[in-house]
Structure formats: structure tokens, C-alpha cells
């Protein structure tokens, strides 16, 4: 019964996409350093790999996840970016040695911060690769101090610093798309930090619902109480093409508590659909690279949420397309 329900949900997610914007040019463009286009920069010789960013609600503080560090930058002034505080979080020599014994390059063994999310008004939840042994911790947003000892981050953060992932916290619960082993062979979408009668849930590749995915982003639409995951994966439905990449959007319901029998502690509301970006007489832009969303105007329905995606082609190197689309759930 649970499997039939899951199958019916998988075909209920429909996305209506606008044509790819391949023939258009930007309305405004300028070179770095152009007069009248002031760009404020921050740099430090001790800071690198700043790939994870989190902006405070008042937009005054930018939290930066870097290699072996979490930074809080004051961005409230137009003409300057200053370092407000910094948390150094690096593996010990023993951790680095164990990482090397796994056959990993030492350059890949530091702690690359890959998850930064507000847990509440006072704390940030952070995770890092930590010498191919992921760790997570609670950090005070005001002082960047750890409020407790880091715990295991398996299933919440990738092991490999080159492995893409996504994470979002809603109502104190962490929803992630990442891998569950250091080889990067066990992808999963999961929920963590559940309390009370709610349980942590997951979905992996054992049932064939995920096919070697590359996770890109995640989004929460409050009116629908659903979490959306965006990723690319191998499209098994196109078995006549070897390893054809397909871009996807998937959904899970926040109210999901898992199945009673065959799907215990697993998602029962998971569904996914293809994102198709293809102009006339061109090969498809089938690999999703990044995505962002524009919330609807105040009072407008959730269906008015506009998503912008950057797509590239699996076959045409250097070709990029920007696509805008709405999603409608039936």
C-alpha cells in the first residue's frame, strides 16, 4: 500500500517551465572596477575555500564557511567589509594522519565547512568535512563560539570537499541532500534533529529513487509545508543513451512521519519530476548548475514563486542557459 502511494505521488509533481533564455543578452553589464559601479571586497591570506555563505535576516552580517574556519563579516556599511569574529575549527594532527591513511590527498583533509544554517535566533548549525570524517556543531551567532562538542555529521555533510550538497533548516529540523559514505557512493535525502513524536527520515538509492545524483539546492515554501530539492542525476528512463544526465526537482512533505511497515523511517511523500530546458533545434541544457528563488509578492499565492536556474549542456562545453519557471502541484 505504501509503495503504491509513493508511486502515485511521483507522477503528481508537475513543473511548467518558460522557454530557455538562450538568445537574450543582459540589459546591464559592466567590467570590474568600472566608474559608478563600486564593489566592496574582503580578503585575508589566511582564509580560503569560502564556498558556503549565510546572510543574517537584517542583512548586516554575512557568515562565511571556509577551510578550517567560520567567519562573521560586517556588511552593514556600503564602503567596507570588516571581520567581526572568527571561529577556527580544524582537524588535529591525528585526524589528518587518519585521513591520509584512507588514501586521501592532504590538501583535501582540512575541515571544509559545507553546512551553515540558522537553527534559531541565537544559534547556527554548522557542519564540515573534517578530514573525511564529517562533524557538526551548534555555534552562537553573536560570538561564533561552539555551545557543545561537535558530533558526527554522517548523512548531514559530505566527506569529500568536492562533493556538492544542499541543506536547509525549517522549524528546527535539518533537511539535507548529500552522501552517507566517504567514497561518495550512497546518496540520500534525509531529515535530522527531529524531536518528540517526529522521527528522522531518509531516502537513499536502494529503491532506485536516486541515480547517482549531484545535489544543487533546496527550498522551502511555507504555504505548502513542503521542501523542494533540486539536483541532476542519471536518467534511467533514457536507457537508449549511455549515462544521460537529467535535471530534477523533488518534493517531500514536512508532515511526513514515515511508513508503518515497509517504509519505516523512510519518506512516503517523496516525488520527483524532470526539469527540461531546451530551445528549438538545439541539444538540451540538461545539467543543472545552480538555482535561486524569488518569493511571491505579499498576498500572492505560493504558485507565484519564481525560480531561476542555470543550466549547461552535457555535450556542448561552454554553453549556458538561464531559465525561469513556476511550479504547480496537482
TrEMBL record:
The protein's matches in SMART domains, at most eight in alphabetical order, are given as: Sema
Q: Name one GO cellular component term.
A: plasma membrane
Q: Which residues form the signal peptide?
A: 1-22
Q: Name one GO biological process term.
A: neural crest cell migration
Sorted keywords for this record are: Glycoprotein, Signal
GO MF assignments: chemorepellent activity; semaphorin receptor binding
According to the lineage, what is the superkingdom?
Answer: Eukaryota
Q: Does the record's keyword annotation contain Plastid?
A: no
* All copies of domain Sema, residue ranges: 27-330
Q: In its UniProt entry, what is this protein called? A: Sema domain-containing protein
- What organism does the UniProt record list as the source? Pogonophryne albipinna
Amino acid at each position: 500500500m505504501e509503495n503504491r502511494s509513493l508511486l502515485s505521488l511521483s507522477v503528481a509533481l508537475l513543473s511548467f517551465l518558460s522557454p530557455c533564455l538562450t538568445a537574450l543578452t543582459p540589459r546591464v553589464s559592466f567590467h570590474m572596477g568600472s566608474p559608478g559601479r563600486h564593489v566592496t571586497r574582503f580578503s585575508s591570506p589566511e582564509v580560503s575555500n569560502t564556498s558556503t555563505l549565510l546572510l543574517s535576516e537584517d542583512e548586516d552580517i554575512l557568515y562565511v564557511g571556509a577551510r578550517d574556519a567560520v567567519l562573521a563579516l560586517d556588511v552593514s556599511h556600503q564602503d567596507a567589509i570588516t571581520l567581526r569574529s572568527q571561529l577556527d575549527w580544524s582537524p588535529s594532527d591525528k585526524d589528518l594522519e587518519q585521513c591520509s591513511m584512507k588514501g586521501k590527498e592532504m590538501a583535501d583533509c582540512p575541515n571544509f565547512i559545507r553546512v551553515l544554517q540558522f537553527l534559531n535566533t541565537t544559534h547556527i548549525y554548522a557542519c564540515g568535512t573534517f578530514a573525511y570524517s564529517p562533524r557538526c556543531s551548534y555555534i552562537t551567532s553573536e560570538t561564533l563560539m561552539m555551545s557543545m562538542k561537535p558530533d558526527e555529521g554522517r548523512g548531514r555533510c559530505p566527506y569529500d570537499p568536492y562533493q556538492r550538497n544542499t541543506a536547509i533548516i525549517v522549524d528546527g529540523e535539518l533537511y539535507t541532500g548529500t552522501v552517507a559514505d566517504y567514497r561518495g557512493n550512497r546518496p540520500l535525502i534525509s531529515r535530522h534533529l527531529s524531536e518528540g513524536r517526529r522521527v528522522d527520515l531518509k531516502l537513499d538509492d536502494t529503491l532506485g529513487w536516486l541515480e547517482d545524483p549531484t545535489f544543487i539546492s533546496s527550498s522551502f515554501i511555507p504555504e505548502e509545508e513542503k521542501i523542494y530539492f533540486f539536483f541532476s542525476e542519471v536518467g534511467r528512463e533514457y536507457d537508449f543513451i549511455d549515462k544521460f544526465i537529467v535535471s530534477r526537482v523533488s518534493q517531500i512533505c514536512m508532515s511526513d512521519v514515515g511508513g508503518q511497515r515497509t517504509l519505516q523511517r523512510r519518506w512516503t511523500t517523496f516525488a520527483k519530476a524532470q526539469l527540461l530546458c531546451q530551445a528549438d533545434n538545439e541539444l538540451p541544457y540538461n545539467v543543472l548548475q545552480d538555482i535561486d528563488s524569488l518569493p511571491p509578492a505579499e498576498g500572492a499565492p505560493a504558485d507565484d514563486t519564481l525560480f531561476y536556474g542555470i543550466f549547461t549542456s552535457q555535450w556542448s562545453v561552454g554553453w549556458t542557459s538561464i531559465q525561469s519557471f513556476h511550479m504547480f502541484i496537482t
